[in-house]
Structure formats: structure tokens, C-alpha cells
Amino acid sequence: MLIQPQTKYQSFQPIDLSDRTWPAKSISRPPIWLSTDLRDGNQALIEPMNPAQKLQMFNLLVQIGFKEIEVGFPSASQAEFDFVRYLIEHCLIPDDVVIQVLVPAREDLIHRTFAALKGVPQAIVHVYNATAPAFRRIVFGRDQDQTIDLATTAAQLVYDLAAEHPETRWQFQYSPEVFTSTELDFARNICNAVLDIWRPTPQHQAIINLPASVEVATPNVFADQVEWMHRHLIPRDSVILCVHTHNDRGCGIAAAELAQMAGAERVEGCLFGNGERTGNVDLVTLAMNLYTQGIHPGLDFSQIDEVAQVAQDCTQLPIHPRHPYAGELVFTAFSGSHQDAIKKGFAVQKSDELWQVPYLPMDPADVGRTYESVVRVNSQSGKGGIAFLLERDYGLVLPRPLQIEFGQVVQKTMDTVGQELSSADLWQLFTREYLQGSPFKYQSHQMSETRSGWKIVAELEREQQPLKIQGEGNGPIDAFLNALDQDLQVCHYEERALEQGSDAVAIATIQLKSAQEQKGSYGVGIHPNIVTASLLAILSACNRKHP
Ligand code: KIV
Ligand code: ZN
């Protein structure tokens, strides 16, 4: 049983910002994206990426369109250092991409970081130190002034070392780590103290990154914190305000979105939400959330399965089947009413109109998904899904009452097999039920016109014995029913082409009813000759009546 939590945990105090403006704002353009897959993402892996995987991830990020990529923590290990050197020495960084590296506010590590960056055309040096009270007290034993001193000393060293290498275009970034639990006025003081040293300008901005290193409150609280900082950073026009949300409470996406409404211009995160503990914010979801609001994110996820595959190969972490936009099942409907609505939506959706297919927040084709997975049939599905699959994959358009009838056939099978049926399974079931019945089998027929209508002579098989029948009527169907002498009336008849083109195949569906029956049963015939298709449909209905 869970303990009474009030003795162990406390709620986060709201921010005093009664004139907050972010709730009335909306996001109208994408942020500057920074991928930290190779740093925060990599450091959180059970097995960190090897050099080949790192390169594969780097190339993927470039291909997606990231222009800022945090490629590592070069002072943390030789492997991290070597990867940065490898990118630089092999000229693997495109001209329009800037790499970023992380370094703690420590003199020796800053020197090592600059050594790793030697010769790079442009780079962002990202310095951080933890600023939250618990960290100051428990981890570092430093008070507020000493913590500011640590940050400013590091900022000065970064500034000086950069000045020694004017061949590189430098940009500086500072993160008050654990910002979410840091007193706001202290966060402001330390960020402004760092900015004071870097003296950014509107032409050469510094980045202030506000990390939700641990997510501790609802996303509106984070938005308040960000808006508060947005109002207090000096000089604001010389700062790119960035957020870096983690997902401890499952709100990393919401926090990053509300933070943009609150003034953040840049977002750091990882593909599919990889990262420490519950992960960094998922940049794929953030980008696609923009896309489905009609805003191009500037990142290309048009082949999302390929991106997911590379990410999984590099991280060795699976992507959940229900992961937004990328999971295997996220465009799939199993429930009958959803399938019905989707089928109707697809039928009226025009390619040049706003997307309005019910239950599908976006067109799966936009992320390279086929419509194959949109509808899948299990025991909770209904006629809509079954009809959708048969139409999509076999060109079979079934009249509604036949959909209902076949739906019951499928349901019975489903109750016995108990597992999902593919469209091939459905087609097989349909074939068995309607096209391969017995005792009657069609062999051939001849039609001739009489003075009063039509005469048919048909060769059939009944229980594997030849059977020749003949009859007359006002048309082929009437003549054939008379020849069969089964006392059946036609309740519904429909014929249409199964395929387009010159060698089109006809599908005839017929509902036949005897005098004693309330409702008849359906038969289906498929044949290139439309009359033969109708005769087959009649035999199919007879077979289903007397199997
Ligand atoms: O989550 C975090 O605080 C970080 C910083 C180092 C930016 O990853
Ligand atoms: Zn982080």
C-alpha cells in the first residue's frame, strides 16, 4: 500500500506571477531545435553508443534537419573527446550545422573541452553548474555567492579561451542545472552574472538554457518560471532563451510547449524522448505537434519509420507501439465504431482539402506510413473495418446488409481463433463463405432470347453429380431462379466492377429469400462475364441456405 505521502513529499509552491501572459499566447513558429541525443541521450543509455553508432546518429540528425547538435561531453571521457575530434578532423560537420559540447563549470574540464574543439569552424560551448538549494547544500557545500562565483569564473575562462581562438565562431550557453527547483531570483542573479561576463549583443547572442533537469511541478508552473526569467534576463534581446525539459511527471512535451508560449525560443531534447530517467523531451512529438497545427517544424520526419529504426539501432532502446506519431499502433483503429468513422472519413477526404478523417489526427502518409495499419480487425472490430480492408485490398465494395452479414461470420471465427485477422485472412474467409460453397457448382450456361423473355440452359454440379437445368424468365436471373425451382425471391441485387480497366471483373451480390423467411441470405459471384457473375451469386446464396 502507498504510504501517506504528505509526510514525505510536498506540493510545489505556485509562482507569484498574477500578470502572466503565456496562457493567452499560441505557438506560431518552430523553436530553434537542439538535439542532445549524442550527449544527454547517450549518457543515459545502458550501453553508450560506439563511435559507429554515434556517427550514424549524427548523420541522421543532420539528415532530419537539425542545425544545432550537442555532440558530447568531451571532458568526460576519452571516447567523448575522440568523437568530437573525429567529426572535426574528418570535416564531417556541414557548414550550416553547429556542434555544441557540454562542460561543467570547472577549470580543468573547460581547458580539455577547448582542446577537443580545436579547429572547429563554429561551436557552442555549454557550461553548467547546479543551482538548486539541495544541490548547493548537499552536493557542493556552497552558498549562493559561492555558486555564482563558480559560474562566473567558468564563464570568464570560456570567454578568454574562446578569444584565443578567433578562427572559430563561438557561441556561449549557460545552464543553471536543476533550474526548476532553484529560487527564481537566484536563477536570475546567476544567469545575469554570467551574461555580464559574456556581454552578448543582439548580433552575437548568448544562450540561457533553463533545464527542468528534474520535472517537479505541473507544466503551467514551469511556464510561469520561464516567463518570469524571460522578463528578468538582461540584456534580453541579446539572449536566446532555451528550455531543456525532462519527463519525470510525464509532462515534458507540455512543459516545452507552454515554455515557448512563455518566451522560450529554443528547445533541447532527444529523438523519441531518450534521455536520463524518463527521458528528455521528445523532439519528434514536439515537431509533429507543430506540423499537425499547420506549422512546418523545419525538421523532416516524412519517413518516420526509418528515423525510428536508426534511433533504435543506435540506442538499443525500443519505441513503444503507442509512442505518438512513431509507434506501430498509433494510426491503427481496432474498435468497430472508430473503423466505421475512419472508413467514412477516407471516403470523403479530398487530397486538396484540410485533413478531417475522424480519429486520425494526421494523414499517416505524411510520415511515410501506408494506410495498411490504419484499420486492423480483432474481436472488438465491426463491419466497418472488415469492409474497409476488403475494399482497400481486394476492391470489394459490399452492400451494407452484406457487410453486416459477413461481419457476423467474421465475429464467429474471431470468437474461435481469438486473434487478429489480416485482410488476407478476411478474404480467405469471404471466399470460403461466399465463393466456394456446396452443393451447387456452376459449369456453364447458354442464354437465348424467346418471344416472351429469356431462356437459360445451365450445366451445374450438385454434390459432385452433373445436373442440367433449364428455365425461362424475364431476364437471366429470373430464368435461372425458375430453372433452379427453389421458390426464392430476389430482395436485393447489385452488380459492380471489382477492378478497373478493360479486363474488369464483375462482382454480383444478391439477396434471396424464401416465402417462409423473414430476411434472406446473401450470395456473391465474381466473374469477368456479368451474367455468369449473377448466376454464381444465385448459386452462392442457395449454397448458403442449404449447405
Ligand atoms: O538536465 C539537465 O539539467 C542537463 C543540463 C546539463 C543542461 O542536461
Ligand atoms: Zn538534461
UniProtKB/TrEMBL annotation:
Catalysis: reaction(s): 3-methyl-2-oxobutanoate + acetyl-CoA + H2O = (2S)-2-isopropylmalate + CoA + H(+)
Signal peptide range in chain numbering: none
Binding site for Mg(2+): 40, 244, 246, 280
Region ranges (Regulatory domain): 437-547
Record pathway: Amino-acid biosynthesis; L-leucine biosynthesis; L-leucine from 3-methyl-2-oxobutanoate: step 1/4
Cofactor: Mg(2+)
Keywords: Acyltransferase, Amino-acid biosynthesis, Branched-chain amino acid biosynthesis, Cytoplasm, Leucine biosynthesis, Magnesium, Metal-binding, Transferase
A molecular-function term among this protein's GO annotations: acetyl-CoA C-acetyltransferase activity
Physiological role: Catalyzes the condensation of the acetyl group of acetyl-CoA with 3-methyl-2-oxobutanoate (2-ketoisovalerate) to form 3-carboxy-3-hydroxy-4-methylpentanoate (2-isopropylmalate).
Subunit-level organization: Homodimer.
Protein name: 2-isopropylmalate synthase
Organism field: Acaryochloris thomasi RCC1774
